[in-house]
Structures are given as C-alpha cells and as structure tokens.
Design brief:
This protein is of the alpha/beta class. The chain has 14 helices and 17 strands.
C-alpha cells in the first residue's frame, strides 16, 4: 500500500498540531501517510514545523512559501491538509480540488454557508474528497455516549443542555478568533458542540437565540508567545433554545468572557434516565443515571456488548474505553491521528469521510442560525440558513475587515 502523499498548508498553531497527529498516526499505522511538503507564507513557521517533522517522522518535508509552487509539480502529491485561517478556506479549497487534490480542511469549513457551498460544489465537480477536520466527535467518550443513546439506555431523549463557560480577559489561542471577518469565536469554538449534538441526537431543526459581545478589548499571548492586543468585534456570548427534528428540545450556552466561574456540561435527559458529560477531550467518564442508580463503567460495558472503537481508534485508545487519563497534548494528537487516518482511507477506498463537506456545512449553518436568530429576533431554521434564504448576519461577516 502506497502512503498518501500529503501537503500541509498552514504551519501555525493548528498546523503544528496536525503534524503531531501525523506523528502519532505513523506510530500506530506506519506508512499510511507521507508528509511530502509544507507550505506557509511565513518561512520561519514552515521551517520550524519541518524541523519537528524530522524528529517525529524521520525525514524532512520540502518547504514552500508559495502555494502555486507547492502544487506545481515539484513534489508528487495526492492530497492537502489545509490549516489556514477560515476566511481563506473557500478560495484555497476550490483551487486545490481543481488542481486534482483531495482536501482535509480545518473547521469551521467556511465563515459563511455560501462560501462552504462553493467548496462542496467544486469538490464534487472535480471528483475529489472534501473532509472537515472535526476531532471532538471522535473522542472515545462521545463514541460511548452515542452507543448509550442508540441502545436506549436513557429511553427517549427529550431535553439536551449544552453549557460552556470560559474565562475572558485574554486571547483564546490566536487573535483572529475574536474578529468578525474570521467568523468570530462563536463560530470557531462551539462549532464542536454542533457536530456532537447532531451526532448524538440527530438533525437540529430550529433555534431561538440571543448573542452579545461582552468583552471588546482583549490582550495576551498568541500561541507562539507573541504579546498582542485585539479589538474584538464578534459576539462572545450566546444563549439559545433548540428544537431537534426528533422532538428533543435543548438549551445551549456558550460564554467566552467570564470574569469568574468556568464550566462545561453536556446533559441529555431521557424518559428513563440521564446521560452527562463534563468535557470533550477530558477522558472523564460518561455518567449515566437511571433513577437513583448510576451505572458503573463495568455495568455500562455489560449492557453495551456491541460498543467498541474502530480499528485505528482502538490502537490509539483501546477497544472499549469507558474513560482515559492522558495529558491534553497526547489526547489532541491521538484524535488528530484518527481524523487524518479516516481522510486517508476515504481517499484510498473512494468512500465518504466521516465528516464530509455536507456535515461540516451543517455545523456552520447551526451556529449561523443562532446568530441570524439573534439579529432577526425570531426563530430561525437550519434549513433556511442552508438554502441561503436567511443571511443578514453572514452579510456582516462578509463586509467585516
């Protein structure tokens, strides 16, 4: 089996993390992917990632600072791992698939639904795979939660509560996350919850939401240690009521400017019990209660005989985990290894990736439905955002600088 020849475009914070995911993948499934080249307009970033690649992979990928040169034939390529800022995704993906390359694109797929649709259409016309890098849904504890729901362990779900409250004050990894032109923090971070909730509960139908900007001035260190200040012009607090196609209702709170308490909680209430999670990528166990009884990990496994991770995730986390204890960077690279492997297999086998362009677009539409609802002061359906019927908030994103 020939390895997938990959170009990594974007060597900043997430680009370096994707490299470490490739290193982890090479450890558990050697020869799946070969990192043939790196590209970043900032040569120092590309060279730093190339040096780390030498340590992790045992070879040095070729370095480029110009995308056209990188894909121009100097290096044999099959696919691209695109890890640039989200506003650049649509232009770059269209260019790459038209050049005959398959693309794994970092989330969010695009800063607006219309941009994402252009990406999907271009990939379909070119006959190329377009996958979205969504790591949290591959968390073994999310796999376990899905198995619990599919087995009916809490009966019929009727209410979901999704809460994430994070400290304000500083830069959340990189300054562009706080800019409306890049989609804003509410598109970039809680989009993980959009993927997770639809994976667990099926399609989200409509939302009623309110968003606000709590903290307009932020300062702190970028991922590379550089001190920065940014005038935030994108909302950082969102509260929504959800209606799923199944009839399940929900409450969603994302707040990234807390001056005190922080919290993370996902709670699904069913007719026969409740299922709770206290943090994606944390390794903390799923808490399943039926009345006063809380099922132990052993009891969960006993009533879920079919629960097991797929082959590559088993190599990374074990076959039937009910919790795990790993440092954050270790968990991160394992989940990235799993998503890159799925992309490589989709290309190799001619199948759809787990998170394809359409799935990625739905996640974008979910967050924009909430933001459109806040602007319009009415209930908004995900369908009307996907169709392009409602786009006033996204027009603001397009107009932002």
């Amino acid at each position: 089996m020939e390895p997938l020849k990959l170009l990594l475009v974007g060597c900043g914070m997430m680009g370096a993390r994707h490299l470490r995911g490739l290193g982890e993948l090479e450890r558990v499934a050697p020869g799946t992917v070969r990192l043939a080249a790196l590209c970043d307009v900032r040569r120092e970033y590309a060279e730093k990632v190339a040096a780390e690649a030498s340590e992790l992979l045992g070879y040095v990928p070729q370095v480029f600072t110009d995308l056209e040169e990188a894909i121009g034939g100097k290096v044999a390529l099959d696919a691209v791992d695109l890890v640039t800022d989200p506003r650049s995704h649509d232009e770059l993906v269209v260019r790459l698939v038209q050049a005959g390359l398959h693309v794994l694109c970092e989330k969010p797929l695009a800063v607006t639904v219309a941009r994402g649709q252009r990406m999907i259409e271009a990939a379909a016309e070119a006959g190329r795979v377009l996958a979205v890098a969504e790591n949290n849904r591959r968390d073994p504890m999310n796999r376990l939660a899905k198995a619990c729901l599919e087995a009916g362990l809490i009966g019929t779900p009727h209410l979901a509560i999704q809460t994430q409250i994070s400290a304000g004050g500083g830069i959340l990894a990189t300054a562009w996350r706080h800019r409306l032109a890049m989609g804003g923090i509410l598109l970039d971070v809680p989009i993980h919850s959009g993927y997770a909730l639809e994976m667990l509960l099926g399609p989200l139908e409509s939302v009623v939401a309110q968003a606000q900007l709590v903290q307009s001035q932020r300062s702190g260190k970028e991922f590379d240690g550089k001190e920065v200040e940014v005038v935030a012009d994108a909302p950082d607090c969102l509260c929504a009521l959800l209606q799923f196609a199944s009839g399940t209702q929900g409450h969603w709170l994302s707040h990234y400017a807390s001056a005190g308490e922080t919290a993370y909680r996902r709670l699904i209430l069913g007719s026969e019990g409740t299922l709770g999670q206290s943090g994606d990528r944390s390794g903390r166990p799923v808490v399943l209660k039926r009345g006063r009884e809380e099922l132990t990990p052993e009891a969960l496994l006993a009533v879920l005989p079919d629960y097991q991770l797929n082959a590559i995730e088993t190599k990374l986390f074990g076959e039937r985990p009910t919790s795990y204890t790993l440092e954050g960077p270790v968990t991160d690279r394992k989940l990235l290894a799993a998503e890159i492997h799925d992309f490589a297999e989709a290309v190799r086998l001619g199948r759809a990736p787990e998170v394809d362009g359409a799935t990625g677009l739905r996640a974008v539409a979910i967050l924009h439905a909430m933001l459109e609802s806040s602007l319009a002061s009415r209930r908004v359906t995900v369908a009307e955002v996907l169709s392009g019927q409602t786009h006033a908030y996204q027009d603001r994103v397009e107009a932002a600088q």
